[in-house]
Amino acid sequence: MTDAASSIAIIIGAGHAGGELAIALRNEGWEGHILLLGEEAHLPYHRPPLSKAYLAGSVEKSSLSIRPQMAYDKANVEFFGGVRVLRIDRANKRLELADGKQLAYDKLAIATGGRPRPLSVPNAAAAERCANFHYLRTLDDVELIRAQMAAGKRLAIVGGGYIGLEVAAAAVAQGLQVTVLEALPRVLQRVTAAELSAYYERKHREAGVDIRTNVQVADLEVTGETVSAVICADGSRLETDLVVVGIGLIANTELAAEAGLEVDNGILVNEYAQTSDPDIHAAGDCTNHPNPLLGRRLRLESVPNALEQSRVAAAGMAGKLKAYASVPWFWSDQYELKLKMVGLSEGFERLVLRGEPQTDSFSAFYLKDGKVLAADTVNRPQDFIAAKRLVAEGIAVTAEQLADDSRPLKELLPAPAA
Ligand SMILES: Cc1cc2nc3c(=O)[nH]c(=O)nc-3n(C[C@H](O)[C@H](O)[C@H](O)COP(=O)(O)OP(=O)(O)OC[C@H]3O[C@@H](n4cnc5c(N)ncnc54)[C@H](O)[C@@H]3O)c2cc1C
Question: The domain that contains 165 carries what CATH number?
């Protein structure tokens, strides 16, 4: 049997989840080796700024690292960048790497995140070889996009979700001619109410972005080594200098599935972030986990989820059971608008607005059975703090109370138990 000091924990994936897990594992008292393996060359870095401040050029690359190398050294975490894990051999507790090496583990964590959903059109493969065609997931992706962004260039964005709209905001501010092509009738349709979509469409149009909804991209026109136009299903043709596609994410679950772990829209984990193999945990975008507050399973794509679930996984790997139970939350920055969302609005019965959208400071509450399922807050940090508790604690409220902007929302919150 391996003693504690020589036991080996390996974390596959050095994103938000993997990096946090490595440090948390040491903090939870793991005495043995901790190896953090990442396919990307970089130390774990903040992904959200890639479509926001970093794309806009308002923050430096050096500010993207979540922690400096020193922090990993101090925690005695060995980081290996540019390392792709090819296979998990559970029977022998070994990993096979793309360079042919093998690594033994005692405990394993999978934090492989996801990859952009590819555009499924006839010319997609040819377009992917073009220097002006991009998905946006990694720092390397955004470096290529930034290098091609110049005032006056025509940028076609496929997908009117958060990433597409954030890229639009950053690009139009830099003088590009931006068009967003969204297949659904409104932007952000999967995540917000019609009122919020209308608000964001208006803000983008006012900024000069051409937002086109109900537009299905049918193909890409490739001329030489360049995507020269986007062809839409209605026959229209949009000439372009640069294309960015943001149409969702595919969770990286293949390693887990091939190793025989249970996978169903994400690697299935329990509330302790443990997979169907007790020696393997998983955290972040790649997992499908139970949420006791919502009473169902979820696969989330958000930094708070990646961080919190990683800490739970680290505790479990160190032999301490901590259950994961948080309400999902997310944010998006576009122009001067700081949107923060909490909860999941699916199945809501009534939308209540607090404040006036015209003022660019308002909140929207999604109500069901006298309780707040979810809230979207725009430039309203205080509303967001209160909304988090309203959702998490299932506090009974009325639409009138929420809409009354003359009284702070915190008045609706019961005093925390002494
Ligand atoms: C442009 C952009 C903007 C975003 N904005 C926000 C936001 O505003 N707010 C928010 O909450 N969330 C945002 N997100 C989502 C957030 O970044 C993700 O939820 C978060 O990064 C998930 O962390 P993760 O560690 O699970 O996965 P990732 O960050 O994807 O990390 C997984 C890592 O695993 C590596 N990997 C995969 N397979 C292997 C393998 N076989 N071997 C070795 N390494 C492997 C990958 O290369 C990757 O580096 C944004 C995402 C993007 C792309």
Answer: 3.50.50.60
